[in-house]
Write the structure tokens for this entry.
Amino acid sequence: MLSPSGASTNTEPGDTETLPITNRGYWRNFGGILTRSPTGVAGNGADGYVEFGITDPEHSQGRTLGTFAGVFSPVALSMFSALIFIRVGFIVGNAGLFVTLLQFGIAYTILLFTVSSVCAISTNGAVDGGGVYFMISRTLGADFGGSIGTLFFLANVVGCALCVTGCAEGLIENFGPSGYLVDDGGFTLPDSRWWRFFYCSIVNAIMLIVCLIGATMFAKTSVMILGIVSVCLLSTYISFLAQSPMQVLIPQENQLVQNATNPAFGAYTGLSRQTFHENLYSNYGQDYTSGGSQVNFAIVFGVLFSGVTGIMAGANMSGELKNPSQSIPRGTLSAVAFTFICYILLAILIAATSSRFLLQNNFLFLMPINLWKPFIAIGITTATFSAALSNMIGSSRVLEALAKDQVYGSILNFVIKGTWKGNPVVAVFTSWFLVQVILLIGSLNTIAQINSVLFMLSYLATNLACLGIELTGAPNFRPSFKYYSWHTCFFGLMGTLIMMFVINPIYSSSSIILCLVLVIGLHLFSPASQGAQWGSISQALMFHQVRKYLLMLDSRKDHVKFWRPQMLLLVSSPRSCCPLIEFVNDLKKGGLYVLGHVKLGDYEDNNDPTLDEYKYWLSLIDHLKVKAFAEVTLAKSIREGVHHLIRISGMGAMKPNTIVMGFYDEEKLYDFFESENSTYHTATFRNSEEDESDQIFPTRKPGGAKTLSAREYVAMIDDVLRMKKNVCLCRHFQRLDKGLIARSNHIKYIDVWTVNVFDPSNEDPFDVVSQFMLQLACILNMLPVWKRMHLRVFLCETQHSPTTNNTENFTMTPPMAQDLSAEFRLSQQLKLFRIAATIHQIPEWSRNDDFTRHSALVKQFTQSGSDSEGISEEHLNRSRMYMQKVNQLIRERSDQTACSFIYLAAPPSASGVHAPAKSLAYLDLLTELTADLPPTILVHGIHAVNSTTL
């Protein structure tokens, strides 16, 4: 390992080292974590010579492109595309110079904010192939990244179709009927909708061949292509200044103004103050390329923005760049500035030299006014072809990245298998085919709107990604690009969202809906295995917000009106208690739910074993589909571990108020994971598929010794109550079948036994314990599966006369209470608490017989007073007989019961000479009480949980 000073200590082969700030050397990038190669040899891909996390261009392998060739040239060519020579006149002629400058200002402001977000993300870590998709998916997570990546792939496909259509349009205007480069009587290209589709298909096929050869060849020639386009553009500027006024023929394609007998012409005036003044303001006409549809601000902006959507072209080449973190910001920003100057200058010259009629009716007017007409033909062909190539290469790389990340599982495996010498051949064919489909639309202006909306959605996601990670304040977000803030991200996000709907509300709404559908679908069904390794910004945002609200949640402001159960379920082995885990999940009513487990052991000379086990508990929660947290602690005894869990579970005001435990008995444990008839059956929790006995969460073997004694169990109940927590003991829940409850008409009831069988009395049939039982039963009765159950409350009649009642919101004086029966008082209390239940009197305790005399004997098993006397065998036997009769009494009324809540008397104190005997007797009597009953919960509450106030 490296010492703090940076000096290397003894390192074995295969060891990894932490990167000190001052250290330079060869480092490998594993999932974003930099580790040093002990041999001093850099690996492939994103590995290389690294200083402060930035890959050194001189030592990167497999990456050959620099800033100018790899970023500036593709971005500039993509932003020129079909717009620079074909549609700037259309924009100025309809919108006027003022609105045109405004639209360019809006478009480039959005682009500038988006570029700042791209630069911030790309300089915060190693950028791999996939460009924008890679950045968004590694920032926002697999769900959102996969959906935006899919739409960005489609945006590149549509952008490619747009450029191909522009290229074909330029060919027709040059070599078609009345073409500018065709001599009179010479050969011309036939022109019709399907002929244009044919020409587009030929251009698309040529691009396919180039892409199959490889992206590197295109990147190396992009500098030459940009040079050609720049020369052609320069010739246009010179022509505006040098060319004399002339009349320009309107193309035959324009059937709105052109006819064979009287050809129409538009005026090129040269530099003219009058022409400039006439072109300052908007005067929208008709679009002759789309059947004469009316042009408006939205259509013009859609066409304009479609031509400047190439800012991601450099990011798309991230897999081929030597140093993407440096090249992407520099190359993209400089290309944006260069194209902005070119467009503004061109718009001003067009407004000052060409009549509005010419601009609206001849989109290719730059050809006849140029000093040498072939310049424009060459410029159109090279600009559109190179932009189309850039989009096709970009779309194929995004599709390849989606396939490698297994975003759609095995559906895209054919893309991975179809790679030859690093070139995704099948991805290229797929992109080519989709471009061919888009070309059927025909109209360039229609394709432009779709293209603009899809690219804007990807820009929106990029700004959202940068905004989200900036707002979370993540310490590891430290981009070397500093010219950004949450303000730029926010304005970029809002700008793209607003202008999307300005361009076309229908396309925008459809794309957003499609994006949301993909997000939800990928979240629910995506088998992407690497998503957890990328990290998701949603987790960072939730952490940020949850921490803030937890600090605001003040336990001193708790009110009984808003009480809800917050459950800590103590689990020994989840294999044998799956129904109970699911049942408590129903019972929590939106409250905190924690699965707690105590692992016996100590830390001496060992690592913490709970660290490895915790992941299995998370998998268990996923398997059972419960909304719970897991807490695992290490202790020398179960009782001590339970103390840990009760004290440390939860956070702030979100702490468990109810502790749920299984019952201490000798029943055979049922393995719900291994039984094929079980709804919880799974092989997930086996260490070995072949050996079923090699299990995670092992259970106690039949006849094996328990790790918890009966006395400790009772002492734990006493501990829970002394820690001011409610306690629930659950028995027979291995018999619970929610599916049967939902289907069966025989099971009808949820029973609540308010009788304290250790001290039966009707003096207070709705004390705190009874209220707590009723609250839990009412919560259970609210759930869909349990909703058709009827709530029954069982009340005992005794020979004792009622005295007084002191409960929240219901107080009686003794004289008044003596005139009212316990049943009437309980019915009134149920009405006040809005609990729909039927009351059933149990008269057995009111008779003067052995049953009632034996009931008086069991009190001492829960008394915590004098411990001077022991418990005789005869006394214990009589008490057992009493509990057996109570058990029989309950069983007779539980034939149609789904679940029973029974009053749990507080256990005897754990201290004293006779405490062990009393504890064993107490547990023995509870065992007799609950024998052969339906799923049963013994409940003892210590706090008021009901309220009658608003």
